[in-house]
Amino acid sequence: MNDDMRKDGGPVDVITPAAAPAQEAPDGTQVRVRFDDTQMASTYANVASIATTADEIMVLFGTNRGWSVAGGEITVGLTNRIIMTPSTARSLLDTLTRVLEARAK
């Protein structure tokens, strides 16, 4: 946990990718990475889907608001699309795997 607080007053857990290399400036000094969340928006999603191209991986997020399957179809309202490189997707996968394994303990 870090010292930042959510808007509701609760603490914010920041998990950084284990595979992320240490950041160095061109002169060799260490650079601290700071996450600026002042422009961040939060959206709830209970559905995620993946789409790919040769150079990108897209994660589509949305919400299934239906209570039952009517007519054999479910409509999911997509709200966000995150487009990333394969290396960023791998880093996300590694981080999610680590977080989920820690929660299962």
What does this structure look like?
There is one protein chain. The chain is an alpha+beta fold. The chain has a domain at 47-65 and 74-104. Helix content is 18%, strand content 22%. The chain has one helix at 86-104; strands at residues 47-52, 57-64, 76-84. The two termini are 17 Å apart.
What is the structure about, briefly put?
The protein is an alpha+beta fold. The chain contains one helix and three strands.
Quick tags:
18% helix; disordered N terminus; alpha+beta; 3-stranded antiparallel β-sheet; 105 residues; 1 helix
Topology:
Elements: E1 47-52, E2 57-64, E3 76-84, H1 86-104
Antiparallel strand pairs: 1-2, 2-3
Tally of DSSP helical segments: 1
* Widest sheet, order of strands: 1-2-3
SSE order: EEEH
Broad structural category: alpha+beta
Strand content bin? 15-25%
Radius of gyration (CA) equals 18 Å
| Helix proportion range | 10-25%
Distance between the termini: 17 Å
Shape: elongated
Low-confidence stretches: 1-5
Give a quick account of the main beta sheet: strands, pairing sense, barrel closure.
3 strands, antiparallel
